[in-house]
Amino acid sequence: MSETASGHRPVVTELRLSAFRSHRGARFPLTPLTLLAGASGSGKSTVLEAYEALARLAAGESLGAVFGTAPGGPSAYVPQGARPDSMGRRGFRIGCTVDGPAGAVRLDVAVQAEPELRVVGERLTGGDRVLFATALRDPGRPVVQAVWHTAGTTPVTRAPLPDDQLCTALLPLRVAGTTEGQRQVLAAAEQTVLALRSAFACDPRPESMRVAVAAGDGLLRGGCDNLAAVLRRTRTECATRHAALVAAVRAGCAGAAVEDLRAEGCSGAEGGLVRAVADRGAAGRTPLEWLGDGELRYTALALVLLTGPGVLEMDPVREVLAARQALTVLADGFDRGLDGRQAQELLALAARMCERGHIRLLGTVTDAERAAGTPGATVLRLGGAPDGDKPET
């Protein structure tokens, strides 16, 4: 995959859930800091689920790996009440828009969930031109018929592609790039894949964060259960970011002032296990597992906001410089379990990091009013009109 043509980092600016679980015809504009608010059952988590699904498909995972393991199987993603067609088929549709050097590129995917899981249609559009499209022509064969823009001696190229993957992610291996049309297709596909793959789904699980972990487990997982090992690594790799993390935890955790965060070996443990501790100066050291659930979630989310893809367990596009990629954090329950002060501090930290341009955040919150008061945040109230961007004061 070639490097992006300019310093403009590709980012997802709209997510579309045309027909996905409880959503029909839904569009969600995404800014650097987007927070979803709404009552329980309004579909907030479903929006993040759709984004993560597109990210995994862009990374080359199969439909079965992404949608086949959910409770209820692929049929769980079909909107309730959707009727099968004359051949007994039902499915769902999701898509996104990615802005970047290639302009605004739209990706739309139609997935058949019943009677078998397969992609039945995919479309990549740049401006007013359909650059790439697939369609299921023969239900008896495990392929779709693909056609992409060529603009050479023949206007388009046709070829069969597998029906169990996102074909847009396969284009860099299938399109030669010898004509201007082919280069447009490649640029659009690469931009889309790059933006989608630069995502990290995060939902810290305090119950798992209280267990000692292997010292060398240095890539932070989505549940943040290996926080101690990651602290051991990041504390020595970047003193500036570590100091910012300590300051953030000091602001969000009650009691004696936190002077440092570190990982220390567990006495009597075998295999190089470590646990995280907070150095509170004269008050001594406090193991992080003694903290409350809210404090643990706060600490983990602060670490995620202050780090980068190299410290997170994700599959970034390694062929492209990190400076050309914008990490998007998907945080379900961003303020879950936090008290008012912690939520305020974490939102302020997210706003500062998103403003710098190297990170984007799409999260769900329970307190819409507090989120709406965060400078630079866009709050989308499911079931109502979105709040506009708030000017920084």
Structure write-up:
The protein has about 400 residues and is of the alpha+beta class. It contains 10 helices and 17 strands. The protein has helices at about 45-60, 65, 170-175, 180-195, 205-210, 225-235, 240-250, 295-305, 340-355, 370, and strands spanning about 10-20, 25-30, 35, 90-100, 105-115, 120-125, 130-135, 145-150, 155-160, 200, 215, 260-265, 275-280, 285, 325-330, 360-365, 380. The strands form 3 sheets. An 8-stranded antiparallel sheet has the order 2-1-4-5-6-7-8-9, with helices on one face. A 5-stranded parallel sheet has the order 10-15-16-3-17, with helices on both faces. Strand 4 (about 90-100) and strand 5 (about 105-115) form a beta hairpin. Helix 8 runs parallel beside helix 9 (about 340-355). The protein starts with 10 loop residues before the first strand and ends in a 12-residue tail after the last strand. Mean pLDDT is about 90; it is low at about 1-5 and about 385-393.
Order of helical and strand elements: EEEHHEEEEEEHHEHEHHEEEHEHEHE
Question: Structural class of the helix and strand makeup?
Answer: alpha+beta
The main pleated sheet reads as:
8 strands, antiparallel
Radius of gyration: 22 Å
**Based on CA inertia axes, which overall geometry fits?**
elongated
Number of DSSP strand runs: 17
Mean pLDDT metric: 90
The residue fraction in helices comes out at 25-40%
Number of separate helices: 10
Stretches where pLDDT is under 50 for at least 5 consecutive residues are 1-7, 385-393
Which band does the percent of strand residues land in? 25-35%
| Lateral arrangement of strands in the main beta sheet | 2-1-4-5-6-7-8-9
Distance between the termini: 41 Å
